[in-house]
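In keeping with the milestone schedule agreed at the kick-off meeting, the structural modelling team has produced records for the first pair of proteins. Each record is given below as a sequence line and a structure-token line. The laboratory manager (R.T.) confirmed that both were archived under the project's standard naming scheme.
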Amino acid sequence: MNYYILRRLLLIIPTLLGIMTINFFIVQIAPGGPVEQAIAQYQGIGDANTTRVASGTNSEIKQGGESKYRGSRGVDPEYIKALEKLYGFDKPIVERYFSMLWRYIKFDFGESFYRNEKVTDLIISKMPVSISLGLWTTLLVYLISIPLGIKKATSHGHSFDIWTSTIVTVAYALPSFIVAIMLIVLFAGGSYYDWFPLRGLTSDNFSELSLMAQIKDYFWHLTLPVFASVLGSFATLTMLTKNSFLDEIHKQYVVTARAKGCSDKRILYGHVFRNAMLLVLAGLPAALIGIFFTGSMLIEVIFSLDGLGLLSFESVINRDYPVIFASLYMFTLVGLVLKLISDITYTLIDPRITFEGR
């Protein structure tokens, strides 16, 4: 097993390198980069995020001059050169690529183009929101879905299975952002009740509260966004758990165990559980990455939570390359490590599984 773990750790390096290389060159050659956005802002037609660049480069607009950037007609070439130097585009693309790799090996992600802040500090400042949403959502999803899926498998075709399947289907059909809007309308001062706060992870006076009051305030703010995330996530895992257990229940070893006089509870949790849970655990890394870093973006926007999902989205829109590549690098690295942990968990659940021969 140690050899397998070492080999998987070594495989992370070329995998991460390949992902970063492909995305780097695709993003770099795509139109609408930071230089073009700064030019658009300079001409009064761009986004406000590039105001720092436009105001920091004092050049006069002159007629004439050709450029490789869209919308640069009539803009002083010296101004464009200053923008290229500011964003690092005055260097060849290959040189920028190897410079990025060398910095990322040292976990030096540079500074955001538009926020005047180090990318590492920026990501760390957003992590409490995403970790809070991801941690409690994942925990509740698994605590609800696994027992419910097992119960549905053991009562397959009965009334409990039928009406819970209806609820699961409806929950799966409702997008999380629709549920979030409904919750705001109903319980956050929309049209009915004003029971829960509408924005932020904590109250403004959070630091002045006692420890118990802080815990209460924290979960009070998380109730609606976590509920919206759970409702849209537990349906798939519930049906996966049910089908996995249902498939195992009808196998020959279960029939043999019953013939030997084993109780249903012993068969279910002593034999079926280990085999059926392997398929459920296989989706855990993807679930963690999806909920922590991408799936929460709409929830963060609706409930005014400033987390990693919103940061990544805004970075793509604004072509904030340091934040884009740093987020991709960290998310990919975490995903690869979680996948390895998932494989190791297989052997803990079922010692018969071994990766040594692979």
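The second protein of the pair:
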Amino acid sequence: MQKTYVGARLRTLRDRRGLSQTAMAKLLELSVSYINQLENDQRPLTVPVLLKLNATFDLDVGFFATDTDARLLADLHEVFVEDPDTSAISNAELEDLMARVPAAAHLLVNLHRKLRGATQQLEQISAGLEGPVTGTAAATPYEDVRDFFYDRRNHIPELDLAAESLFAENRLSIGGLDLQLTRLLHERYDVTVTIRSDAPTEPGSKRVFDPAARHLTLARRLSAGQRAFQLATQLAFLTHGDTIEAITATVRMPAESRDLLRVGLANYFAGALILPYTRFRDAAEELRYDIELLSSMFEVGFETVCHRLSTMQRAGQRGVPFFFVRTDRAGNISKRQSATAFHFSRVGGSCPLWVVHDAFATPGRIRTQIAQMPDGRKYLWLARTTDESTPGFLSATRDFAIGLGCDIAYAEKLVYSHGLPLHDDATAVPIGAGCKVCERSRCAQRAFPQLGRAIHVDGNRAANTPYTPADLPTAERS
């Protein structure tokens, strides 16, 4: 085993559990001096001690892995790479900063986000653009909420347990949940539900609730699974509004972001109610994460199943840690949640070699890809377009592709790994976090030069790859 030093992570674990070195040593049946040496990086972590730690504290299998902090490392890289004066800082130095003072690393990332927002605000004012200023001292509300779930690895245990309890206490069952939830709303909460037909070319809101009349209206165009989701969202506000408010109160956000977060938490509850944790996880494991079979079994859409799979990180009952993303034809990412270390840059778009972009060429068909990031980490990706229906032939369509990925270490648990060369690096597709931060200098698909890295311009040579870095050896320029 390669020597692995985990001092900072071990101290973080001990602080989170409120343990002294003596108490931790007693739990692990180790000496206090040994724990002290581990925390000060004087001794490497051994496999037996790693197994003891995982078993005693029910840790995520990647808690002590170096790639667990890949997202934070990527964010730090963006902070420094945009400034030419700091571009010489190496990844090794950033890793050391992140491991030894993670709180400072997070602070730097948050300050950088605020600086970027403030800069955008200043540029808009300087340009004399009309209308309200869109830049803020922080991110946009949707980015705030996205980061909230992202930082929590897309798992909110309070709401997950509450939804599963509500499902069991009311003796709900899989199959016809829209009818069961309609009856529950009427009998327990005096809410009547009606279905509304919209004009063919002017679809209205999916769900409208009138608190005074205790009346909920759903659009007729929704499928049974979509109706169940909307009914469950309304139940979240009616039954666990206090829990949602308590979670929201712990976060520092602008008012608009907090309002959006409440909706996001209600939607999380809804997903957890129509796909109860234990039942769904057990089915996923049994069916080897076959999304289409799970979709049929639980009467929900492809996207709903993929999103729920990205939340299965309950302590003691963890599923495969997935990265979930939804993108449009232009590559704009509208949903991004993760239980993994995978990270895409916030600047410069996503990688054009990523399989999710290929899904639009074969609507309704699942595409797979073994992809390798610049740091050597490999992922199994699957992608497919959504099956969202449209009101009519002349109506504007909503086309999205859904991507679901996991670390290659978990690939054999998925039916989609069948027949793929999981361990052949030569066949893996080299992708990156985004052109502006990607280190692959010889990528023919590069759309932008790497931030903080000067480019080489030679009028006597027409290179095969765009934006050749100036610091690349002459022999490697093509």
